[in-house]
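During the second half of the funding period, the structural biology subgroup turned its attention to how the target accommodates small molecules. The most pressing case was pyridoxine-5'-phosphate, which had performed well in the primary screen but for which no bound structure existed. We therefore specified the complex as follows and requested a full 3D prediction, including the ligand pose.
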Amino acid sequence: MSNDLRLGVNIDHVATLRNARGSAYPDPVRAAKLAEDAGADGITAHLREDRRHIKDDDIDALMAALTVPLNFEMAATYEMQAIALRHTPHAVCIVPEKREERTTEGGLEVAKDQNRMADYIAPLAEAGCRVSLFVAADEVQLDASKRVGAAVVELHTGAYCDYHYEGRFAERDAELDRLRDGAAFAQSLGLEVHAGHGLTFETVAPIAAIPAVKELNIGHFLIAESVFMGLAPAIHEMRRLMDAARA
Ligand code: PXP
């Protein structure tokens, strides 16, 4: 596709549904292949420390089955680093992880942890993974991300989406301005800019319209919407909305 905005489809919540019954279905790899056929430019999967959705075998199977790049999301632990180095996926996206959270709540505190992050990222980058840090659109965190050797930052769109659905439109618009400024600043540092978390048909357009943003990673809403319209049509509609916003 000639469009310069990629869509990464996160298939974690297919595994959530499978694990709710301890069954063999629905298979996240089947969903990933369907997403590929529907035009996803990449597949994202988050192997959490507690394995609440994606499991180690899913990562093995995704690495074997995918023809589009895998964006492997993980916390900055040494267990996860070893798994990433074993698979060397196209991209590794490092996220903060708390056991008690329902989903990834905030961005990484890169600035407070620069020496450790630099040491942590180096072997992943040397192995050929594009390392991305999931951060808030905050100049301090973006500067630090560049300094520790990340190639990519993924901007957290969760607060923007929450404000939208809570009807707090002034705060939503302020958050959108922050995302726009942060994306431009990150690009000026030479970082590739991605964005994601909580995006839906209603909220995607203003984010897709930010010129510096090159990839959106979207999961929960697409899997939820697939109950009603099917996964391929949901991906097609998201792609259509992204393209329209970009044009
Ligand atoms: N990007 C990152 C870094 C994430 O942690 C997540 C959630 O796993 C997403 C994007 C996708 O968020 P959602 O599932 O809400 O679309």
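Two results from this model are relevant to the next phase. The chain has one domain: 6-246. The CA atoms of residues 29 and 149 lie 31 Å apart.
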